[in-house]
Amino acid sequence: MKIKCKNMTHAMKANRVLYDNGIHSKVEKINDDPDMHGCVYSIAIDRSHLSRALEIMCLAGVQLHKKEKVNYGDVCK
Amino acid sequence: MIYFDNAASTYPKPGSVSKSVGNWLKNNGANPGRSGHKPAMAAGGVVFDTRVLICKLIGMNDPENIAFVPNATYGLNFLIQGILKSGDHAVTTDLEHNSVLRPLKLLEKKGVNFDAVCVDLYDDNKTVENILKSIKKNTKLVICTQCSNVCGKVMPIRKISAALPDGVKLLVDGAQGAGIIPTDMKADGVDYYCAPSHKGLMGPQGSGFIAINNDLFEPLIVGGTGSESFDLDQPDYLPDMLESGTLATPAIVGMYEGIKFVLGLGVENIFQHKVSLVKYAVNALNGLDGVITYVDPELSCFASTTCFNVSNQDSDQVGEYLAENDICVRSGIHCAPLFHKKMGTEKTGMVRISFGCYNTEYEIDQFIKILKKYLKK
C-alpha cells in the first residue's frame, strides 16, 4: 500500500526512518491517482506493517499529504 | 603554488568531491522532486542525504528544515528580506560582509531600520553588551557572522544568543564558519543559519543552504516546486517553500562528499588546525620589519584568516607581487567596509591570507620568504 507524503523530502525521510526500524519501503511518485495534481510522492509498504510504520513515521515527524486518507490519529501520542 | 585564499573559496577540493560531481554529470542528470523514474529518484535521494548530513554537521534534527540556495548571499537575502518587514529593527555588527549589510540597507527604503554595533575583538562580554544596548522594542533580528571574513575573529555566538531578550531572533552567517567552527544550532541558540558549499564545507561553487530552527517567513522567490501544482500560492511548508526551480544537484552531490570529508577529519580538529595556522602566521609576520598586523591571536580566538599590510602601501600592490610569485591571497576591502573603517584601512585595504584544511606551517614559511624579498625591494 502507498501512503502519500507531504513532499519528496518527507517521503525520503519516511523511507530512511522505516529502514532504520527494519521495515522495507520504497519511495514512489503517484502516477495513478486522478485526484493528485503535481508531483506527489508516497511511501510504499507492505500493508501488514501499516500500524507500526505509522507510529514510526509520526514519531519522526514525517508529514503526510493533505489528501492522504490514512492519518496518524493518536497513533504516536 | 601556495593557495591562501580559502576564505574566498577553498582549493584544492578533496578528490572524492571532484570525482562524485564528474560521475554524477556523466551518469545522472535528472531533476530531483519532479519525476518518478529511477534517475530522478536517485537525484531526490542524494539531495535528501545531503540534508541529513548538514543536520549532523550543525546539530539539527529535521532534514526538511534545510533548504538549498545558490550560495550564502542568496541565503542571507532570503532570510533578511523574508523576516524583516516595515517597522522592524535589526542589529548587526561592524564585522559583517556586504551580503548582510546591503540587504539591510535595501530594506531601509522599505521602512526597516538597523544598527551595526562595534565588535570588541578582545572582549566578548563588551560585544554582547554593545548588541544588547542597541536592542529596541521593535528589534526582530540580530544578524551576526560566525567568523570574520577579514580578521578571522570567531564570534561569541552562544553568549549572544543567551543574552538576547525573548522574541529577538538570531541569524548567523556561517559563510566562514561552516565546517570550520564546531556548530550546534540548538545548543548555540541559533534560529537561522546559512552557509555556502564551496568554503569550509569543501564542496563546489553553486550551492549553499539555509537552516531554520524557528518561525517560517515569506519566501523571496516563488515558482515551481513540483508540489501543489494547481495552487498558485507558494507551498507554505519546508523545504518546498524556499526551493523554487531546479536545484543545483551536481553542486549538492559535491557538497555531500565535502561534508563527509569534513566530518571525517572532525570539525574540532579542523578548527584547531586553523587557529594554530593563524597564530603561526601572525607570529611570523610580526617578525618582519615594515609589516603591520591587525590582531593578536594570543588574546582572543581567531581562526582560518588573518590580514596584514606593508607599511602604508596599497594592499593590491603586495597582492600582485605575491600573485606573481604564485602565492594566492586576497587584497582589498573584502566586501567588509565597516571592518576597514574600524581599522582605518579604507584607503589601503588589507592583504588577507586565509587557510584551508590542507595548508601547512611550511607553506607559511615559504610565503614569508617571498614577502621578505618584497620588503627588500
Model description:
- The complex is a heterodimer of chains A (77) and B (377).
- Chain A is an alpha+beta fold and 77 residues long.
- Chain A has a single domain, classed as Alpha-Beta Plaits (2-Layer Sandwich).
- Chain A has two helices and three strands, in the order βαββα.
- The longest helix of chain A has 13 residues.
- Chain A is globular.
- Chain B is of the alpha/beta class.
- Chain B has two domains: 119 residues, Aspartate Aminotransferase, domain 1, CATH 3.90.1150.10; 251 residues, Aspartate Aminotransferase, domain 2 (3-Layer(aba) Sandwich), CATH 3.40.640.
- Chain B is built from twelve helices and 13 strands.
Describe the protein's topology.
The complex is a heterodimer of chains A (77) and B (377).
Chain A: E1 2-4, H1 8-20, E2 26-29, E3 41-44, H2 50-60
Helix pairs in contact in A: 1-2
Chain B: E1 2-3, H1 15-27, H2 38-58, E2 66-69, H3 72-83, E3 89-93, H4 98-108, E4 113-117, H5 124-134, E5 139-145, H6 157-163, E6 169-173, H7 185-188, E7 192-196, E8 208-212, H8 249-265, H9 267-286, E9 291-293, E10 305-310, H10 315-324, E11 327-328, E12 330-332, H11 337-343, E13 350-354, H12 361-376
Parallel strand pairs in B: 1-11, 3-4, 3-5, 5-6, 6-7
Antiparallel strand pairs in B: 2-8, 7-8, 9-10, 10-13, 12-13
Helix pairs in contact in B: 1-8, 2-8, 3-4, 9-12
Task: Briefly say what this structure is.
With 77 residues, chain A is α+β, with helices and mostly antiparallel strands. The longest helix of chain A is centred in the N-terminal third of the chain and has 13 residues, at 8-20. In chain A, 31% of the residues lie in helices and 14% in strands.
- Given the helix and strand composition of chain B, which structural class is it? alpha/beta
Instruction: Work out the count of structural domains of chain B.
Output: 2
Q: Strands of the largest sheet of chain B, in order across it? A: 2-8-7-6-5-3-4
**Rough outline of chain B:** globular
Question: Widest sheet of chain A: strand order?
Answer: 1-3-2
- Name given to the CATH architecture of the largest domain in chain B: 3-Layer(aba) Sandwich
Number of domains of chain A: 1
| CATH evolutionary superfamily of the largest domain in chain B | Type I PLP-dependent aspartate aminotransferase-like (Major domain)
Assembly context of the chains: heterodimer
Compute the CA-based radius of gyration of chain A.
11 Å
Low-confidence stretches of chain A: none
